[in-house]
Amino acid sequence: MSSRVIKIDSNQGSFDTTQGKSVCDIDLPANLGNVDLSRSYILITTQPSLTEGNFVAGSVSNPFLSYALEAGEQLHISDTASLVRNANFSSRKGRIEDVRHVDILKNTLSVYKQDLAQVQSGQNKMATLELSKNSPAHQNNEISKVEDIISRQTDHDVHIPLSNIWNSCKSEGFDTGMGAHGNSRLHLEFNFDKLSGARNAGVTATSFIEGTGTHVRGFVAFTNNTAAAVDVTELTSTGLYGNKDNVPWYVGQCVNVNSVNDTGAAADKQNRITKVENIASGAVKLSFAAPVSTAQVAAGKVLSAILITDLPLAGVTANSVSIKKIQLVAVLSDEAPPAKLNYTTFDSEEDTYPATISATRMYNVPPAVKNVYVMFFGDSGSTKMRSENVQLLNYRVSLDNKDLTPRPIVIGSAMHKDLINNVFTNNQDSVKSLRESQLVDGGILSPDETVLVASLKGQPCRMIAIPIPFKPTQTHLQLELNAKAGQVLTGHHILYYEKAMQM
Questions:
Q1: 283 lies in some domain
Q2: Is residue 203 within 8 Å of residue 247, measured between CB atoms?
Q3: pLDDT at position 443, please?
Q4: pLDDT band at 388 (very low <50, low <70, confident <90, very high)
Q5: Looking only at Cα atoms, what is the longest distance across the chain?
Q6: Residues 283 and 375 in one domain
Q7: Which of 227, 305, 438, 452 could form a disulfide linkage to 260, CB 3.0–4.6 angstroms apart?
């Protein structure tokens, strides 16, 4: 199968992180032939940046594109479709798919569709989270740890596969001929207001080398054996690295050097690394743009207690994200398009009710629906981009007045997870993870979900999944929700009805 790729610019020429410039329309022209939607994607070119008050001129920062789930939680890894708030796909034949709250739906489902290894290695992630590294190189930066080759910041291209936004785009064939779909339009509303530039804490007092008890920040003391005072511009690490990829230092990096000159007090000085050399012993030698201490080391004296760390995050005074352009990257196929387009899509229904310890809700599930997903907003004013309801203890489901299970289903229990597996099986898919935790830079609640444990990287992400017998008529759904002792349900959730479609 041969194919070619074209790029189509958005109708809007400028975007920013305000809600005033976060809407995008892209027109897919008629008569392009067969478009392989399964390989096509939205391309967003961005550039995150930071302003750091104690930054040495000429240094290169290593920011990443951060997605704010809520206050204090920055999303490192996500299904990039969670950047989309609402999405509509239409053609000459009318509406193909109109999905509301894409962010909550796709971000939540991604927790179940990827295991930890897939999450960290995913091609479409917005930032790099490598748990074994203090300062991972992010996609928008070319970080050099080779001699004196300078690092630099570059644009960061965010890829959002169309198939991650609309299920109809899982198809390899989409006929753009005038006798078929003709002119089509992709309408996207983005969550650009949740984007910002951010930086890892990097090397701190608690950073160790490759699981050892040796501090990354430690460097060999310098003794001046000459007859005159000298400047020190090179330092060698005390620790040894078995894997040079784990060296946190890079060319152009701005660091803080703390040292004791002779018998004086410990002093800090910000400096820029100009060269990184790997020594045969496993140590690393760093060269700097300026002397590492605030004064020269006198003859016969020692520069000791040398500790190098990243600049504190408190020094970041401003951050921003430039959104340079948005394009559709469309893959054109020489294969004949299918006569019919078969897919599933999501209708949604939001439900709001007063805060309570127990709620029973009734819904009429549309015909041809095979799965229902119940996802929780938290409270009505929540900005969370994942399904979470830590107040929920258990739930019961009835379909056409028949209980789905013989007893209430405890959230997080084996029965709860069995239903999730059944829903994925309905889609001829498989669950990759049942951790029900979203990786974030911020913290995770304790096992009883009452205390924030800042050292862990994750937050609960849970949904209710209900397999529905496929039929051409409505299904009567009764949902009973019960809160934990001493807590109340916040009274706001959304139901996604996954139904079969043919065009």
A1: yes
A2: no
A3: 44
A4: confident
A5: 95
A6: no
A7: 305
Helices (H), 55-161: 102-113, 116-121
Q: What single string gives the DSSP state of each residue in 358-421? A: EEEEEEEEPTTEEEEEEEE-SSTT---SS---TTEEEEEEEETTEESSSSPEETTSHHHHHHHH
Amino acid occupying residue 34: N
Rounded to 5 degrees, φ, ψ at 254 are -95, 125
CATH number at residue 352: 2.60.120
- Work out how many domains the chain is built from and give that number: 3
| Distance (Å, whole) CA 471 – CA 370 | 8
Q: Provide the b/e sequence for 407-441 (b: ≥16 CB within 10 Å).
A: ebbebbeeebbebbeebbebeeeebbbeebbbbbb
Q: Per the domain annotation, does 498 fall within a domain?
A: yes
Alpha helices per DSSP H over 251-328:
none
Residues 498 and 86: their CA atoms lie apart, in Å, by 16
List, in sequence order, the alpha helices (H) in 114-227: 116-121, 162-165
Confidence category of residue 137, pLDDT binned at 50, 70, 90: low
Structural contact between residues 328 and 263, judged by C-beta atoms closer than 8 angstroms: no
Q: 134-155: buried (b, 16+ CB within 10 Å) or exposed (e) per residue?
A: bbbbbbbbebbbeeeeebebee
Q: Domain limits at 94?
A: 3-200+317-333
Please report whether residue 213 resides in a domain. Answer: no
Residue 218 has pLDDT above 90, yes or no: yes
Round the average pLDDT of the chain to a whole number and report it. Answer: 86
The answer to whether residues 6 and 39 touch, using CB atoms and an 8 Å cutoff, is no
Tell whether 94 and 243 lie within a shared domain.
Answer: no
Query: Has residue 357 been placed in a domain?
Result: yes
Task: Clarify whether residues 32 and 92 are in a common domain.
Answer: yes
Q: How far apart are CA 35 and CA 4, in angstroms?
A: 10
The runs of H, that is alpha helices, within 24-125 are 102-113, 116-121
Look-up of token digits 């302003």: 51
The pLDDT of residue 434 is 86
pTM, two decimals, is 0.84
pLDDT at 454: 43
* 370 and 309 within one domain: no
- Give the DSSP H or E segment for 351: strand 342-352
Say whether both 418 and 289 belong to one domain.
no
Residue 335 neighbours by CB under 8 Å, 6+ apart? 1, 34, 36, 172, 173
Residue 183 has pLDDT above 50, yes or no: yes
| CATH number, position 253 | 2.40.30
- What are 218's strand-pairing partners? 307
Per residue in 349-360, pLDDT tens? 999 989 899 999
